[in-house]
TrEMBL record:
Gene3D superfamilies: 1.10.8.1080, Glucose-6-phosphate isomerase like protein, domain 1
Naturally occurring in which organism (per UniProt): Streptomyces crystallinus
EC number, UniProt record: 4.2.1.126
Entry-linked SUPFAM superfamilies: SIS domain
Active site: 92, 123
Protein name as catalogued: N-acetylmuramic acid 6-phosphate etherase
Function: Specifically catalyzes the cleavage of the D-lactyl ether substituent of MurNAc 6-phosphate, producing GlcNAc 6-phosphate and D-lactate.
Recorded catalytic activity of this chain's protein: N-acetyl-D-muramate 6-phosphate + H2O = N-acetyl-D-glucosamine 6-phosphate + (R)-lactate
Additional free-text comment from the UniProt record: A lyase-type mechanism (elimination/hydration) is suggested for the cleavage of the lactyl ether bond of MurNAc 6-phosphate, with the formation of an alpha,beta-unsaturated aldehyde intermediate with (E)-stereochemistry, followed by the syn addition of water to give product.
PROSITE patterns according to UniProt: GCKR, SIS
Keywords per UniProt: Carbohydrate metabolism, Lyase
Domain SIS, first and last residues per copy: 64-227
């Protein structure tokens, strides 16, 4: 056991994300405003680290969109903060893009309980990752994104290895160069943000970087799938008053129609923003608009005359 912990300690010591920064050893003695300034300065470098990986990110997105366009799913798999960020991104897709909850899925080591508390040993199990993916009925059309700041977390690496063996598309998102996770995936993305303000606290810069990349993966994939019209969320699901108001504003921005015409169109379209926009821009009824959208796989721009 001591040998195992010694090996793990050596592995962690070699990771950029785990590096100790002597110049910050007295951070707890600084005024609060100075600590806040330091954190803000640290975070400012994250977008540049993401920018260095944009070509790899874009290639991964194009491959993901191609498979999802044929009916595949997008699955995130990670432990701890990385897992929570994947679950968060997946949970935001249905209200934003009107996706089926099963189309974008977030898996976290240890299951839902791990969202709020640690599940002992879950992140150390490649077998658990394989079992979680098998429970989804993984297919070759699916895309699995393993997320791990260290790039060595067994759950994330195991998910990518298992998915690749099943013929699924694989993406490995890590925050250390030369990671096992990126090496295991077809598309390796390593956003190297450097040592954290608090030694090893990868919920900081690493978590921010992961959030930025996951935003790109889901958002741009949905753009490629026709879930937007320009920069308008025309597939938004109006599940509350705010979103209903946003739906009306989106129709107004896309068509320039007055409130009465927008209300009439949305009522006839059963609240479907995309259908209402097509009705107003093409001067057709709801049935015709829905038929055109069906013929273009829901792509509004392609359905316009």
């Amino acid at each position: 056991m001591t040998s195992t912990y010694g090996e793990l300690r050596a592995q962690l010591a070699a990771l950029t994300t785990e590096a100790f920064r002597p110049e910050l050893a007295d951070i707890d003695r600084l005024p609060t405003a100075e600590i806040a300034r330091l954190m803000n300065s640290e975070d400012a470098g994250v977008p540049a680290a993401v920018a260095a990986q944009l070509e790899r990110i874009a290639a991964a997105i194009d491959a993901t969109a191609e498979r999802m366009g044929r009916g595949g799913r997008l699955v995130y798999a990670g432990a701890g903060t990385a897992g929570r960020l994947g679950v968060l991104d997946a949970s935001e897709c249905p209200p934003t893009f009107n996706t089926d909850p099963a189309q974008v899925v977030g898996l976290i080591a240890g299951g839902p309980k791990a969202l709020a508390s640690s599940v002992e040993g879950a992140e150390d199990s490649k077998e658990l990752a394989a079992a979680d993916l098998d429970a989804l009925g993984l297919t070759a059309l699916d895309t699995v994104v393993g997320v791990s700041a260290s790039g060595r977390t067994p759950y994330a690496v195991g998910a990518v290895q298992h998915a690749r063996a099943r013929g699924a598309l694989t993406i490995g998102l890590a925050c250390n160069a030369g990671s096992a996770l990126a090496a295991a995936a077809e598309h390796g993305i390593e956003v190297v943000v450097g040592p954290e303000l608090l030694t090893g606290s990868t919920r900081l810069k690493s978590g921010t970087a992961q959030k930025l990349v996951l935003n790109m993966i889901s958002t741009i994939t949905m753009i490629r799938l026709g879930k937007t019209y320009g920069n308008l969320m025309v597939d938004v699901r109006a599940s509350n008053e705010k979103l209903r108001a946003r739906s009306r504003r989106i129709v107004a921005l896309a068509t320039g129609a007055d409130d009465d015409r927008i209300e009439t169109a949305l009522t006839a379209a059963d609240g479907e923003v995309k259908t209402a926009i097509l009705m107003l821009l093409a001067d057709v009824d709801a049935a015709t608009a829905n038929r055109r959208l069906s013929q273009t796989q829901g792509r509004l721009r392609a359905a316009l005359p």
